[in-house]
């Protein structure tokens, strides 16, 4: 156990030092934390430190589920606040929906553990369905925890002061032509980084195309705000007005930067919940640079992080498919073994 834990920690450190934007880092981080915790429990047991060993077991078996249960209640409360302030939408339902799903899982486990539903044990198809639910909960719950913890770590990493370009990621516009409070925070954060830069030749790339309900492109709205509200010279601002997604924001901005500077270094500015995924996308296209996050309204953060996690799951869906394939193979082997 100790060797496996040490190997996991070393793998995380090496992956982090090689590229802190890698999709592999959250998985290695959460694996290291889980294995490290189990190793400490085993160490206390081997040293016969009974009180410490029992305390850690209590935290794992009772305190952690309690924290998850309380988190589910909070997510439901937060979801209601979000719907009240922002209105009904699929995105705004994420926090509420996840909270309800977690509580339903707790209810299912209560029925299963207490034996209240004997069909769970005596009926093979139902038992298999319960096993799938438990596996899905553990898989996505662990992945989500890793994503949250690593996102926080990524945000805390000190940023370089020397960049060639600062990318401002667009967002929806107010009345189709002016920046929203969310986009304004991104711009203000980018201007702050621009003024603190050690590179006198640094430029800002305003990135974002024109949506079907918008009068001008998001890039143009960003440029208009910079011209009207700041003292940044407009010859320092480059418009990238073709992109429609985060991936295109980065890809098209990279092409603009590379046309002006050899091997340019980028700083992409977006909201704090969006920084890690943006950085991971930047890695996939070979973009050099870092992410910088700006503050977001607190009631919006849980739903935003859930949305980011879903987007990453879709991006690396083959990893989850592989886990399910292995799980179903183990189920099949177990079922055949019982019937031989």
What's the helical proportion of residues? 55-70%
How would you characterize the largest beta sheet? 5 strands, parallel
Derived structural class: alpha/beta
Radius of gyration: 24 Å
Number of strands: 7
Poorly predicted runs of 5 or more residues:
none
Strand content: 5-15%
H and E string: HHHHHHEEEHEHEHEHEHH
Mean pLDDT over the residues: 85
| Straight-line distance between termini | 33 Å
The spatial strand order of the largest sheet comes to 5-4-1-6-7
What overall geometry do the principal axes of the alpha carbons give? globular
Number of helices: 12
Describe this structure in words.
66% of the residues lie in helices and 9% in strands. By secondary structure, the chain is of the alpha/beta class. Helix 10 links the parallel strand 6 and strand 7. Helix 1 packs antiparallel against helix 2. The chain is globular, with a radius of gyration of 24 Å.
Short recap of the structure:
It is built from 12 helices and 7 strands. It is of the alpha/beta class.
Task: Describe the secondary-structure layout.
Blueprint: H1 2-18, H2 24-46, H3 50-86, H4 94-114, H5 119-122, H6 124-156, E1 165-169, E2 173-174, E3 178-179, H7 181-196, E4 203-207, H8 218-229, E5 237-240, H9 246-258, E6 265-271, H10 275-284, E7 288-294, H11 301-315, H12 317-338
Parallel strand pairs: 1-4, 1-6, 4-5, 6-7
Antiparallel strand pairs: 2-3
Helix pairs in contact: 1-2, 2-3, 2-6, 3-4
């Amino acid at each position: 156990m100790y060797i496996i834990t040490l190997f996991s920690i070393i793998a995380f450190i090496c992956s982090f030092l090689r590229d802190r934007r890698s999709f592999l880092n959250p998985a290695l981080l959460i694996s290291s934390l889980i294995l490290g915790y189990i190793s400490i429990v085993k160490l206390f047991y081997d040293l016969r430190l009974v009180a410490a060993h029992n305390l850690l077991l209590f935290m794992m078996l009772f305190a952690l589920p309690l924290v998850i249960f309380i988190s589910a209640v909070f997510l439901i409360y937060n979801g209601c606040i979000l719907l009240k302030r922002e209105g009904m939408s699929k995105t705004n339902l994420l926090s509420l929906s996840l909270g309800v799903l977690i509580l339903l899982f707790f209810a299912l486990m209560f029925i299963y553990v207490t034996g209240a539903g004997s069909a769970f044990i005596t009926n093979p198809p139902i038992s298999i369905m319960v096993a799938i639910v438990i596996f899905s909960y553990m898989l996505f719950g662990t992945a989500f925890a890793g994503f949250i913890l690593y996102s926080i770590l990524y945000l805390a990493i000190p940023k370089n002061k020397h960049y060639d370009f600062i990318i401002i990621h667009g967002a929806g516009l107010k009345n189709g032509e002016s920046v929203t409070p969310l986009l304004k925070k991104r711009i203000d954060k980018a201007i702050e980084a621009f003024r603190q830069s050690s590179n006198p030749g640094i430029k800002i790339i305003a990135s974002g195309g024109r949506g079907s309900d918008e009068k001008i492109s998001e890039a143009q709205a960003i440029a208009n705000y910079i011209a009207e509200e700041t003292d940044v010279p407009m010859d320092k601002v480059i418009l990238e007005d073709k992109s429609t997604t985060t991936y295109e924001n980065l890809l098209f901005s990279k092409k603009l930067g590379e046309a002006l500077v050899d091997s340019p270094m980028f700083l992409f500015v977006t909201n704090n919940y969006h920084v890690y995924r943006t950085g991971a996308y930047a890695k996939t296209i070979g973009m050099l640079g870092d992410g910088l996050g700006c503050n977001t309204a607190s009631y919006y953060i849980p739903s935003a992080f859930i949305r980011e996690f879903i987007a990453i799951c879709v991006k690396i869906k083959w990893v989850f498919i592989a886990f399910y394939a292995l799980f179903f193979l183990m189920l099949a082997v177990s079922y055949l073994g019982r019937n031989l």
